[in-house]
Amino acid sequence: MAPKKQSKPPVKGQRSITMFLAGSPGVKDATEPAPPPPKRARTGGSSGGGSSVQQQQPSPSPRIKAGGIEAVPPSAGPPPAARQRIPAATPAGNRQALQQKLGLTGEAAAAAAGAALPIEPALTAAGASGSGGGGRRGSAAAVAAGSAKLTPLEQQVAALKQAHPGVLLCIEVGYKFRLFGADAEAGAAVLGIYAFQDRSYLTAGFPTYRLHYHVRRLVLAGHKVGVVRQIETAAIKKAGDNRSGPFDRKLTALYTKATLEAGELGGVFDSEAKGQQEEGREEEEEREEGREQEQPGLEARGSGRAGSGTEEEAAAAGRGDGRRRQAAASASTAPPQQQQQQQQQRGGWRRLQQLAQQAPSSYLVCCVEEPVKRSGGGGGGGAAAQVDVGLVAVEPSTGAVLHAQFKDGLMRQELESKLLFAAPAEMLLAEPASVETRRLVAGIGEQLAGAPRMEAVPSAPYRLASTALDAVQAFYGTRHGGTDPSGGGGGSSAAGQESSQHQEEGGGGEARAVALAAVRALPPLVLRALAHLLDYLRPFGLEAVLRLGAAFQPWDQVHEMRLSANTLRQLEIFQCSDSSPRGSLVGMMDHCKTKFGRRLLHSWVGKPLRQAAAINARLDAVQELSEQGEGHPVLSRLVPALRKLPDLERGITRAFHATIRPSELVTLLQQFQTLHQQLGLQADTQAASPTDGPGTSTADADATAVGAAEGSSRSAAVPLPQVHLRGVRSALLQQLLAAAGDLSVAAAATQMLAAMDLEAAAANNKADVLKPSDRFPAVMRLRAEVAAAQRALSELLPQYRRTLQISNLQFISLQNQGDFLLEVPPDLVKRVPKDWVKVSSVKKGVRYHTPEVRAGLERLALAQEHLKAACDAAWKNFLADFGAHYLRLRAAVQALAALDCLCGLATLASSPGYCRPELLGSDQPPQLCIEAGRHPVLELLLEGRGGQFVPNDTQLRGDATCCQIITGPNMGGKSCYSRQCALIAIMAQVGSFVPAAAARLRPLDAVLTRMGASDSLALGRSTFAEELGETSSILSSATPSSLVILDELGRGTSTGDGAAIAEATLRHLVQAVRPLTLFITHYPEVCFRLEQALPGAVACYRMAHVEEEGQQGAQLPQREQGQGEGHEEGGGAAPQQQQQQQQQRAQQAALGRVVFLFKLVQGVAPASFGINVARMAQLPEAVLQRAAQVAARVQQESEERRRRQQPAALGSGGDAEERAVQLAQQCQQFVQRSLLDGEVDVETGRRLQAEARELLSA
């Protein structure tokens, strides 16, 4: 019996659409052929036998489109009666609506919802469970045991996913990168690409040339992305033993938020060019697809492009072609909403660039902690109140390393301040960690522009500091940087070892020895954190930057001001409440022209100086730049030169990591080669050699510098010239300009450029980027082999001319068809030998490949692949020369960054109303004296709106008035005044001019603030607990040289408790510590008591205002008036009427409007005028009236209670002298209150007069 003829299966995309439309139970077209049975049964929760499996309904397959998962109903099932036509769903379609349209209700809907999961083969779970405990990686045997039904490519994918858990793998298959399983689900959600079921895996993909764009998007979404490439080409595969198997693939790169800019995809020089070319390349690709459809022989060429591997890979490439053509065809007919979404996706690169600019640094921070051991044992099971914390922060793209070990309290404020300064892109937390630390680390993203990527690492391998020290010493002692102890890392681990080797050979042993000596002196917890970072960075190949001892810097140094976490957040030093740098202090001061200058300014503002000499050195440089910059022969060229520079800091670090592209390196070296000329610096040849005449040119000086860089014998006799600085007075500017214009840097750049082919480098052609040299004999030999293979092919042409009898026959090359093609006219095709292979045909001729040409092309392709591998190795060895000059180049870049910061500060100093602050020495008492000071950020905002800022004076001295108690109406400018004092002090110690008429201060050691009211639910702290925790930190860390700002302390609880805590806290600060203090409160009794108790040290100030009269004729409700008349009879009517009049006047005063003057004057504010703010907030008028009545009644009751208490206190005062002191204080308060209120309480005055007469008569 002849087998039944089966219809040709549709294209993959069509088949998935058919299943989507017609696969639901009871919905199918009777005329439609039945789809093929599934290749394997889905594994579910049931574990029954084969018969039970056949009876089960096959579970539907998921499909992801534009980030959402849609269930695809099963293809097998009972034949439905009719078919329903369902319109195509858009990416923004509602899943519930789709289920209703497809008839998925009840059990079918539940099955579809359960199937909306990424499809993984069953061997993944089996291999993971059978590979041993502890989450270890499964072996290859476990993969092979469960992969009987998987294709070779799927077996390879399963092995890669099992070898690299937790990594989103982008696997190169032909000319596309594909995601499989759970990676496809996550990638489709982030990238907005289509995911579909392909055999055993859910899969999605994108073209290879879009790798840099999609990897960046995945990394910024928080994923750890691995790039798996085909490490063998079709030519090598055909010549090797792996002819029938899939291409050999290996993990070649890993990317996270902290390591992206340091890797091969983190280029900073051509990013903008890439972004501009994206749309053009997509359109060109679509046009190319359309041409390929019209050309014959497409199937053979497509499979050849994917390689001569398995049929599965070629078919995958073919299916990709079909789906991409379908996508291109549907793009023009897409609805307007979908077209708008596609346009938004095309603009994604620009958004990524903007996001990268907002985060200038990408620190990787490792945190290790240990609970503080308390003497006397115990400790209980409560949370660790105090812990010792070790922090190490590494910036792989710049080489900066910060470290610190400190003791932190329950609130973890010290840890929070360091994380706010570093703004880490990624964090490693050594587990186990305390609950408080985990809460802080998990919630720190709410205070930063973006949440850092978190990863927990076990602390057991380096529990002991000695173990960590041994691991670190082994890292610095070995030449290859050690191996990955876990055996992971894949190809990137090997690449990292090779990179480390060439960096060690280039860098020499001196830097390694210096770094090892610096590391041995690190605290134990810092050593443990450093050991964890080394293990983490090895798979990335970026650990070599830790060998540079010059990069290690303590997080907090003695000569730097300390800014607490509250200060950084509440003063908006780095970013505003909306996580934007605009409106912050750094945003206002940032006039830098380079990215590395902005990063250094961030460090300057976050860690101001404390030494007056260093601050004055910066101020001298800023003053000279602002006064003589435009007319100075050297300084006038500084800003234009800086404006042209790319991100040199990240560029040289990527060259050190051997991840830089040739085009970027050429741009980098050309900048260093001409840097001294751009800055207007000239070589001082007379200082270099007395025999040189005055006519020695700059080229001669460069030649001498090259000789010194090459280490020739003549360099010992002729010293390197020095740059000549004409007319620069500032010692700091001279030092920085000399370091930036170091001629040895230009010599090293000239030497490396001389060995490179600039045209090949511009095209990123590593095969030809290095000029012929005896240094790389393998490259020279393989280039000769390639030339010989090409020559052998060319020599075949005369033979073919004789065979075809065509004298003008030539080899031609066509895109997507090959090289060395012979085009024969149609009328001469009969002369073609039978063993020639037809490639394509057009109207003017037929194109052939001969057997000799095919064999020659194979030899040529193999030689070219070997040449490519040799050129890659030679390129890495060539970059070792750059590594030898890395420290010198880094010093030049740091000098340029400092010059950029100083130029930006000079631009700020040229603003109207800015002055140079006067820094006092340590022999002077702590003081902060400001004349006509202004808020630097708010002033700019007001100027933009046409307003004008009201300046204020500040006088705080440690030996005189060290505390100002500030009262005033709500929204009267109290907090603004205190903030401006702190910001002016910070700007002065950064080395900047300040917005004031005059400023004089002794450098502060810290600025400590407690402002605002906010809880921290993520950390489990209420508003009042947060308030008192911040206050406790201030009391424990403040010194006489600190500036302390306490804003409305005690408002989170009742009035009595709040006033008591505020008074006790301020009394302790003034008496025990005596820092410079600004205390803002709404408790006037605290002002009176402390000013009397601490005369000279405490002064009361208020924000001036003008009160307007309230609503006339305001009366009390009739109910209250009636009650008042009922309580008094006969002769008590007059006092009751007078009391009502007083209450009405108080009510009118409460309803009165307040005009803010924003001027600080001496005295105590009579009230807070909260009802005025309520009116500004547009509360209903009835609410305002009632609030005024309640406020008047409370004020009257308070005065009555005080009147009743005063005679009793006076009568029980003891002797006459004590009674006299009390009466004098009461009289003083009465006078002050009368002056503030603008009216005199006659009854109180008469009572005090009577008591005074009684005391005198006694």
UniProtKB/TrEMBL annotation:
Pfam family, one: MutS_IV
Cellular component GO terms, alphabetical: nucleus
Principal location: nucleus
InterPro entries per the UniProt record, alphabetical: DNA_mismatch_repair_MutS-lik_N, DNA_mismatch_repair_MutS/MSH, DNA_mismatch_repair_MutS_C, DNA_mismatch_repair_MutS_clamp, DNA_mismatch_repair_MutS_core, DNA_mismatch_repair_MutS_N, DNA_mismatch_repair_MutS_sf, MutS
Entry keyword set: ATP-binding, DNA damage, DNA repair, DNA-binding, Nucleotide-binding, Nucleus
GO terms of biological process kind: mismatch repair; mitotic recombination
Domain DNA mismatch repair proteins mutS family stretches: 1042-1058
Location of region: Disordered: 1-95, 266-353, 477-509, 685-711, 1111-1144, 1195-1217
Record bears the keyword Translocase: no
Gene Ontology MF terms: ATP binding; ATP-dependent DNA damage sensor activity; mismatched DNA binding
UniProt KW Hydrolase keyword: no
Localization (cell): Nucleus
Superkingdom of the organism of origin: Eukaryota
Compositionally biased tracts (Gly residues): 484-493
Biased composition (Low complexity): 82-92, 327-353, 691-711, 1134-1144
PROSITE patterns (UniProt xref): DNA_MISMATCH_REPAIR_2
Cross-referenced PANTHER family: DNA MISMATCH REPAIR PROTEIN MSH3 (PTHR11361:SF122), DNA MISMATCH REPAIR PROTEIN MUTS FAMILY MEMBER (PTHR11361)
Similarity annotation: Belongs to the DNA mismatch repair MutS family. MSH3 subfamily.
Function according to Swiss-Prot or TrEMBL: Component of the post-replicative DNA mismatch repair system (MMR).
Name of the protein this chain belongs to: DNA mismatch repair protein
Organism: Chlorella vulgaris (Green alga)
